[in-house]
Structure formats: C-alpha cells, structure tokens
Automatic annotation (TrEMBL):
Domain FAD-binding FR-type: 1-107
One GO molecular-function entry: oxidoreductase activity
Domain of life: Bacteria
Protein name listed in UniProt: Dihydropteridine reductase
SUPFAM superfamilies per the UniProt record, alphabetical: Ferredoxin reductase-like, C-terminal NADP-linked domain (SSF52343), Riboflavin synthase domain-like (SSF63380)
Amino acid sequence: MQIYWTKINKIIEETPEVKTYLLDCPEDFTWEEGSHTHFALEGFNAGDKPNRGLIRHMSISTLPSENSIGITTRIKEQCSDFKTVLRSLEVGNEVAIFKTHSNVPLKRDNKNVYLLSSGVGLATFRPLVLDYFDHADNVNQIHSLNIDSSKDFLFTNIFNSAPARKFTAQFVDNRKDYYEELKNLTADKNGLFYVVGSDEFLVQNIQVLREQGIKPEQIMLDKREQSLSEFLSVEISI
C-alpha cells in the first residue's frame, strides 16, 4: 500500500459548516470522477497499528484537471476528535491519502442519469457533473436532487440548472419534498440512479426506488461489491 503525504494548499469555506481542503497532487497520484480515498492526519501511522481515529473515508470532490485533490466535509461546532484536529489545520500542513478507488464513475450508456444525495454527499457528484459538462458523450441528461436541512446548499455555481446542457439541479430542505420528487423521477424506468449519503439514507432511497420498479442494476452506490449486494438485497413490499 502506497501512502501519499501531501500538503494543504487552500482551504475554502463553502458554507458556515462545510469546508473544502485542496491538497497538492503527488506526482504519480491519479484518480477518476466518483473516487473516494482514505484521508489521514499526521500521526495516524506512528504506532505499531494505524490509529483509526485519525483516518476517514472521504470522497474526492475535484477532477484531476483542476490540479488539486479536493476533500469536502462538514465540521459542526460539536464534532469528533478527527474533525476537531482537521479544523485546526492550516495551509501548508501535511495530510496523507491512500487506498483511492472509484465505485461510482459516470456511466455512459445513453441513458438519463439521476444523482440523489444528502447534504455534503453532493461532493461525490461534483466531479461527475464537471466530467459530463466537459464531454456529454453517451449520457442523455443529468438530474441532481439534493436534500440539505441546513438550507446552505453546496456548489450552487455548478449545481445550477442548464437546459442547454441537459442538466437540472433541485435542492430541497425536508424529507417529504425529497421523497415526492424522487418518486416523480422514477417515472423513468430506464434511468440510472446514483445515491450518496448515510447508510440510512441509502436504505430509504433503495426502498423507494425498488417499490417504484427500479431494478438493482440501475442503482449505483459508493460501496464495494460485498456491501453493495447487501444494500441492494433490501426487501421491498410491492
């Protein structure tokens, strides 16, 4: 396993509770849209065993063409020890990244793509949308639906409906509206539905999608193969 130590080159305050940490790109570090990585703070590997309290599984919110590795995360006033340390870091501090992989690259199967996310989960989809804007080959259109009860919606400069690009973005701040909109989207029985959020959010979305006739192979989750099958085997009542 290769561990890449790199420096923070910029910290962006996206909203009062959400920050993006932009990291220098190590020379041979590569990734694709929809990637996640293990993001670790200094000292995580100082002992005989890795200190898992200093490691988090994070999505990369940028594309390689942006020349920085973006890590976007919510840091509340009351937060974990990991987030407390992260909040104290400054430009120039070192962090580590390793075990980078993509479970949700943009599929180009000449279908409509629906991006379903909760809160900062939208960060996973930011590079997919940018990749689509860069070249829309074999994607009919993209629709993003995000729920964020804070009402401080993320990346509104990118997640902004653009009919000419066949891209629409919806933001809602409550579950009732979210699930009503989701049911409307399932009128497309051939679409591809990407879901990112907490495990509870994934299960609820899968339940609705399956009840509306969407097949497991149409549902994309940021999960490895084993846990993917566990989520998609959720029982439904039709």
